[in-house]
Write a structure and sequence with these properties.
This protein has 477 residues and is mainly alpha-helical. The two termini are 18 Å apart. Helix 6 packs parallel to helix 9 and helix 11 (301-323) packs antiparallel against helix 13 (336-365). It is globular and about 80 Å long. The protein has a two-stranded antiparallel ribbon. The chain has helices at 8-36, 49-81, 88-108, 124-146, 155-174, 191-226, 233-246, 262-274, 276-291, 294-297, 301-323, 326-332, 336-365, 374-407, 419-456, 467-470, and strands at residues 177-181, 184-187. It is found in: Cell membrane. The chain crosses the membrane at residues 12-37, 57-77, 89-112, 124-146, 158-176, 196-221, 233-251, 263-280, 301-318, 338-362, 382-407, 427-452. It holds the Pfam family COX1.
Length: 477
Amino acid sequence: MDTRYNYKIVQYFMVASVIWALIGMLIGVILAAQLYWPALNLDSEYFQFGRLRPLHTNGVIFGFVVNLLMGTSFYIIQRTCKQRLYNMSIAWLVFWLWQFILILAVITLPMGFTTSKEYAELEWPIDILIAITWVMYAIVFFMTIAKRSVHHIFVANWFYGAFIIVIAMIFIANNLELPVTMWKSYSIYSGAEDAIVQWWWGHNAVGFLLTAGIIGMNYYFIPKVAERPIYSYRLSVIHFWGLVGFYTWAGTHHLIYSSVPDWLQNLGIVMSLILWLPSWGGAFNSMMTLLNNKQKLKHDYIMWFFFSAIVYYALATFEGPLLAIRWFNMIAHNTDWVIGHVHSGALGWVGMSAIATFYYFIPRLYGHEQLWSNRLVKWHFWLAHIGIVLYAVALWIAGIGQGYMWLKEEPNGSLSYSFVEAMNFSAPWMLVRFIGGALFVLGVVLMIYNLYRTVKQPKPKNNNNADTVTEKVDAHD
């Protein structure tokens, strides 16, 4: 066993990520069902849509994704820096405090303790705990880099570092609030100022946590799975600076046609359109890395998951700038089209990337080179794909239909359609959305069963740990 590195904490983070993925996505399926069958709110203040929705988003973002990024970053930073984690006591404290934070969210959100700010619903005592834990995470990460045994800093760590710094900065700024009781506070911002700061946070939580962090993870694991080096290391660096330079300014495209000053709206529009270039450049880089091993790509479903993730990344980063164009924003914003856009990225890009990483990484983390069942991986791939397509297409259709119905006027200026008529139009698509989400979660259940059976099977002889496999392909570690 290679004692240079500590993988135990990585195992804990990965298991936690899988558990929170299932919990968060199951709540999402319940919410989709409630939108079609409102009676499933059960006349309960704790089980109705408004209470469960922030539990779903926080469970997926902070439970599933953050555990995944913390775990993979602690692994990758050790491998690429040839250095054990800086301080294992602090690292373990980060793990347990983060799980405690998530449990507090599960308790407080259904009880109605919320700031009501998108992706920032948790109240001030939990916010303080998040900030403290995040600083400790940053200390472990950056001090490990500082003590590295190699001169070069691998590009994945650039993305992880950016995600850690930017999330800390915008989380603290957006959550500056005045407590009035133990579980109630009010933001120090108001009106348009509050909206600007909120979408500086909201859009960049997606941009740096769900995008930059996942990109960093993929820049390490895609070459591993493909058994090829990154297609263009230089392009990966351009990808990094393009995202860092432009993404932080794009959030105000959510505030078009609002009381926010026009110059700030236009800044968000321009920056959003510019983002097409680095985003698609990064997608091309990852796709070419996979295509450099076409023979393996023909039969390896883990590579297919990664390939699909890149396609969905290109799609989602096309939709975002599209939403920044005024005429399209007028039709699509505040409709279900935006939910379809978010989930084409969340399920297609983040979900498929995470699934591929789980399938490749977790077996090796526990000393196995092969999954228990490749057939289940194949089934999972098609369930996930069908689920995403049904989900996204249903909401795109529902959203564009809603937008046109809400905007259409009669010659006398009255609305052509009532709110109820628009909801009746959307109803069948809400059913399709539920079916798509249920299929995706069914695939996750198959994955968990497959991984459980993989980890529990006897270890192959002469395979002491993950290093025996990963060393074969590490051109950069």
